[in-house]
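<instruction>
Derive structure tokens from the sequence

<record> Sequence and structure tokens follow
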Amino acid sequence: MAHSSLWAAVSQVAVLGIQGLAALAILLTFGKGADTDAVLAAYGVYGVLVVVCQTLRLTVVARVVEHPSPWAAFDRFLGAGLALLLLAGVLLLAFGGPIARLLTGDLGPHAESIARSTLAILWIAVGGQLVAALGAALLAVRNEFRYPGLSFVVGGIVNIAMLLALSGPVGILSVATGVAAGSILSGAAMLAQLHRDGYRLDPRRVAAGALEWRTSLLILVGSMATVMTQINLVISSAFAALLGVGAVTLYTAAFFSGAIVIALTASPAALVLAAPVAKTWDRRPEGLLPHLQTIMRAGLLLIAPAVAVVALVGDDAIDLLLGASFSAHDGDRVVGAFVALSGLFVGILAMQLPLLAAYAMSRYRAVAVLAVAGTLVHAGASVVAEQLGTIAWLAAAASLSSLTAMTLFMGLLHRGGAPRAIAIVVREVAVVGLACLVTFGPLGLAAGALGSGLWDLVAAVGGVVAFALLVHVALPHHAAVAHRMVGPVLPARMRPATA
């Protein structure tokens, strides 16, 4: 399980975390302005479609497990996915102008044109992501996570390389071009691996899947919980555009940095547990509580120190990397938004197990309704946040909606036992948060008194060491979870014993 989680994390860092690296590359190459705002706003819409694809790695696993032929199931879902892709293309062609205008707000006609062209190119990339995600889902049923991880990593590398190589010849559109090239490569690599395993494309089954509207509806409805997080980003970006030029870029930088945290915590846990929950769970909600506790401990041991480190040295890192494009105030705004997204990280982590259970029970429609409810909360909170005038408040709105959705999904699975599940989440957040406060807090205050700068870095490093020591000494159960997490990358003599 730990080894699988490692490779699942690799694939998610490549898919989600590459957004953060891409944002950094965009800022380094093109700076902060209306053009980057337009591209990143369009990238948010692409992110919605990518999340629909990537969620297939969770939502279709149970259906593949129960199907007599995995290859037939793959063709069926491939056809249904391609039908949705075609529909998305038609919508982008027919309404590309109004969509781009909505995304760019008051940024002007040039920004609107860039957003529209970016959306058109990124539509091609969605096709590659669809094939890659379906292939990864099929390989996950066979307990194969290494090859998908490597495939997404290579696609991510190509993405960044193309962005940098084409930034001169095609300008800002190199962003979308790089994404398309990397996505197509990942999809092709996944098809090649399936072919080696015995898969042969059956056009008739694919065509039949394209005509099965119920399967297409399952893909859409099943992805709603995860998609709503990305839709919330689009909503936040639209409100950020009302705060002035550059606000979308700053908020997106904070969110994409947070995507790396999510890629290392919530996403790997969900990918690895999807098949076991579908195959072996006895449908008793209380039987999942110990697993919820383990997931929370594992994720929070990464989330808490990551937020603390960014709070201490994030502005210095931004100044070092992007000082030519970002002012000191810009760096503070990005760090403030990242810290305010802490609730988002916790909510997404805690909702993974209830979501997997709901997918195993085919509760797709109920999941979709509750996800929409969370987004309505996000939209309402964003209205208030925009009036308050900072991107940190927009991030707080995202955290609020995530925690709301988490609570609703807990209720869907546990019903009357939901308070017990929520209590586990609250207790683990309190325990790890207190450990983080005790270890990073005094050092951070001391660094501030001494003049920040280099002292912030000393405080961050010292905080990480102190946090690890405190967990090892005072939280043995958390330490055991941490040891199992890092076991696959330790020397053989240091790896935890397996039962």
